[in-house]
Amino acid sequence: MRLAVILCLAASLANAQDAKPAAITKGVAAAPMQRPGISRQTFTDLEKSFDTQLGTTGGAHPIDILGLTRGVYLEDYGVVFTAEVSLTQTPTLNPFRKEITQELKNEVYRQKVENLPLLRKAMREMVKTTAMTMGAVGVKMNILKPNSQVVLAVRLLYLPYENTTGLPGQIIMKADLKSAMSDDIKVEEQF
Q: How large is the angle between the packed helices 40-55 and 102-134, nearest 10 degrees?
């Protein structure tokens, strides 16, 4: 009995006609015209350059890159780059280090305080480099206007045991293309 029901169902499905699509009565809208953007390679080159520059800032106790630099182009605004760092490699608890001594905490704090002005200087140079690169590429291709913004935001991460007195949680440097070239860069530090 079941076999007969299944065979009848299969036969009726085999003879069923496909539904015909409804006729199109309205015109199809054309896809929006895409404006050329800044090449992905330009962003990749700047991102790698920033990571290298950040990773070598600090000499014997270099800045620790925790999140690679990422850049985006925002139409009618400009370019934005972000990164996450620690001002130095911060020791953690592990099987070989059962505790973080007060002496080690003080040393980490000292290293971070020393590296902070170096990070600010490196960021300022990155904003100028971005302005030169993006200005040359973007203005030439009529993508960026002279008032387009260049923004670099670096988030600084800390472990719970750290003393963060006087150390920002985020530094943002921002300028339009022209101002960045003349080193007129606005700095905002968030604590």
A: 150
**Number of structural domains the chain divides into:** 1
Q: Is residue 19 part of a domain?
A: no
Chain centroid offset of residue 168 CA: 19
Q: Does 30 map to a domain?
A: no
- Cα-based distances in Å from 107 to 57, 100, 112, 130, 162: 18, 11, 9, 34, 11
Q: How far is the C-alpha of 190 from the C-alpha of 168, rounded, in Å?
A: 6
Contact 149, 77 (CB under 8 A): yes
For residue 73, the enclosing domain spans 40-190
12 assigned to some structural domain:
no
* Structural contact between residues 170 and 189, judged by C-beta atoms closer than 8 angstroms: yes
Say whether 34 sits in a helix, a strand or coil. Answer: coil
**What SS3 state is found at 119?**
helix
| CA pair distance 88, 104, nearest whole angstrom | 13
Dihedral angle, C-alpha 94, 158, 114, 132, nearest 10 °: 120
Cβ atoms of 160 and 91 closer than 8 Å: no
Residue-wise pLDDT tens digits, 40-83: 898 899 999 999 999 999 988 999 999 999 999 898 899 999 99
Q: Which of 151, 154, 119, 122 is closest to 134 using CA atoms?
A: 151
